[in-house]
Amino acid sequence: DIQMTQSPSSLSASIGDRVTITCRASQSISTYLNWYQQKPGKAPKLLIYAASSLQSGVPSRFSGSGSGTDFTLTISSLQPEDFATYYCQQSYSSRTFGQGTKVDI
Amino acid sequence: QVQLQESGPGLVKPSQTLSLTCSVSGGSISRGDYYWSWIRQPPGKGLEWIGYFSFSGSTLYNPSLKSRVIMSVDTSKNHFSLELSFVTAADTAVYYCVRDTSGAARPRFDYWGQGTLVTVSS
Question: Which residues pair with B118 in a beta bridge?
Answer without folding.
Answer: B93
